[in-house]
Batch of 2 targets.
Target 1
Amino acid sequence: MSIQLDSHTGVAGAVHAQAERDTQDALSLEVTLCGVRFRNPIVLASGILGLSEEIFARLARSGIGGITTKSCSLQPRVGWHNPTIVSWGHGLINAVGLSNPGVEVMVEEIRAARRHLQPLGVPIIASIFATTIYDFGTLARYVSEAEPDLIEVNISCPNLDAQHEEMFSSNAYVSGQVTRAVKRNARCPVVVKLSPNVDNIVTIAREVANNGADAICAINSLGPGMVLDIESAKPVLANRTGGVSGPAIRPIAVRCVYDICRALRGMGVQVIGTGGVTDARDAIEMILAGATCVGVGSAVHARGLGVFAEMTAGIADYMRRHGYRSLDEFRGRAL
Ligand SMILES: Cc1cc2nc3c(=O)[nH]c(=O)nc-3n(C[C@H](O)[C@H](O)[C@H](O)COP(=O)(O)O)c2cc1C
């Protein structure tokens, strides 16, 4: 599947002009997540785009608030065979297998991303993935060398190989221990990314918060799921099963964000609401449920980088209609 990168450049130009008018109206989309300032709440979700000079330039122009890198491991990982990402009508199903070049290369890529994006006020969230608690700690130390603004801890990938019997995030105690190991080694705030595939996401969220998580990202993709090609009678993915994302999972993501924000009120833990967000309306829904930032993944596959500018324009429009001048005025209103 190819990604349309600049399909809405005209929209982005109009949105920048509107952003200037918004500044004059004293309307601000700025948010602060764990002490880090974002020019707006819309963040690229992990795993959606690789880091390259071309992509940095396009991201910088896209009006995005922040970016999350693809999850990196200590050693390079090849990942699964193609097809790894398939659009099935109401979202995506993917089994990429966490392919990545390993932390050494990733540190250089994050440094390059910082050079391009930090001068524009676009923070970088470095995502890490490991197979042991100890390795999570080691990775946090290595990746900190690149000085990302935040580290996101992926304990919730649904595409596990035979070595991994269950996701870390299925178990509250283990999730807490991973969080503790990362916090001990990280030199920036830590976001822990949770899975919806658990009995009670609040139990896991509370445990990671009690072990030092500064923020929670909810949710990773749902599943694993399966889509069959009825002509060949075979699964569409080479790995047979994969994580389900996109519009179909949004109500589950909103419920998770709502429950976590309600349960953890007063603990000072912020939330990145991710899952099925496709337009401004969906992003506003996440903010009403209590999210500080909003992660966008599958929508970039479907609609290109223009979605970011469209979302911020739509949020600003909503704020104007309701007389809000900052996101603080309506964040968590549904709670
Ligand atoms: C192709 C693809 C690759 C992904 N890779 C990662 C990854 O490396 N690390 C991670 O934490 N999440 C990964 N995710 C999950 C997304 O970051 C996000 O949590 C999920 O897709 C739900 O958001 P969406 O509905 O906006 O896509 C991936 C999702 C997709 C579709």
Target 2
Amino acid sequence: MYRRHLHVIAFLFSITLMLANCAKNNTPPNLPSPEPEEDNSSLRERYSAHPDKWPQANWYDGVLKKELSALTSNPHQDRPELLALGKVLFFDNRLGNRNNSCASCHIPENYWIDRVPVASGGGNRNTPNMENVWYLDGHLMLDGRATTFAEQITIAIESPHEMAGSVSEIPSRLASIKGYKPLFIDAFGDFKITESRVLEAIAAYSKSIISDKAPFDLFLEGQQAALTDQQIEGLHLFRTKAACINCHNGPFFTDLAYHNLGNSLDADRNPDNGRANFTGKYSDWGKFRTPGLRNVAFTAPYMHNGSIMTLENMIDLLIDGLPQLHGQRVSGTLSPHIKKLDMTYDERNALLAFIQSLSSAKPEVTKPILPN
Ligand code: HEC
Ligand code: HEC
């Protein structure tokens, strides 16, 4: 009796195995996508079409749909003489009172960052990459509190956490440095040194800092070999199952909007209330601007507080729906669009590989000679 049972079990087991094998053989080699798989062409073929014809993205209700796109050219083409002056000012450690310059934290060869969780100077924010900041005009600083470059640069010069100086003192300081005279003449036609000219030159230089084309851009231009199959799979996941595109979209992978991803405790375990610090609105509590993702593979550590050390860790946490580290509570309300994703380890690796395809060459910037 017992033996017969065993036979039946063994028989059922082998049928199950056979069925499982069949199912495996019938599954197309590509990833399941959330839409019905009536289209049998490969993901590579589907993504080789114009982005208008790409598979439908997984847009959440109420999101402004902005497709991913290739690097757009910088609309700011300032006079070279103005840029030259701006560059010198960017590197000059005499503007403020901490013997540092913009370039002390925005270090060009490090993709314009300092590679530490929070910038030296006692603030609680991570230094962002300067590439493509022209695109962020109107939404500058991690909480968007600076609506113009002049405002942002004034904060950088005057904040005790950055340069601890005063914009109004700069004209007299620079006037005492003879070598600045010809630079102002070249840039403005005369040697008058004013606050607004200083801000204008630094803004022009800041807006001229851009990233180079990435493999993702070359693929969009038709270079098939620029992306691996795994990266194309990652691109598909980014737009569909992982739904990253809802916030990271457009040519720079940011919707320029503000969201609460939690994990906002600073090193002293105080919450950074983000955008609410200056709007005072409860709905802005804990919100930060969506960062762009070009060259993000090189700009660890991540998040406004530099609390996440590696890109792998950042992706894993996003897949887990950003659990709150160290038992902290979310300051404000976690974005409803941050939720646990059902992804396999291969899919996670594909997503990572796609983000790495947004990388371009390391910036090569020659340091200017500071005037005396
Ligand atoms: C002590 C380090 C430090 C110095 C010096 C510094 N920055 Fe920054 N910069 C930061 C940090 C940190 C932030 C983010 C600040 C925030 O969100 O509160 C930032 C933000 C910015 C942003 C906004 C980028 C974005 O993603 O919104 C720009 C542009 C910028 N800095 C340019 C400059 C310029 C130009 C100077 C020199 C006048 C300068 N910085 C000096 C650390 C520094
Ligand atoms: C609800 C909007 C939203 C969604 C969805 C979203 N992100 Fe983000 N992402 C953000 C915001 C906002 C930040 C910055 C949060 C902070 O600093 O507190 C961020 C930070 C990041 C960072 C760190 C960047 C840096 O410079 O610090 C990476 C990498 C990233 N997201 C990738 C992804 C990927 C991959 C997905 C999909 C799995 C995704 N994000 C989904 C809004 C979003």
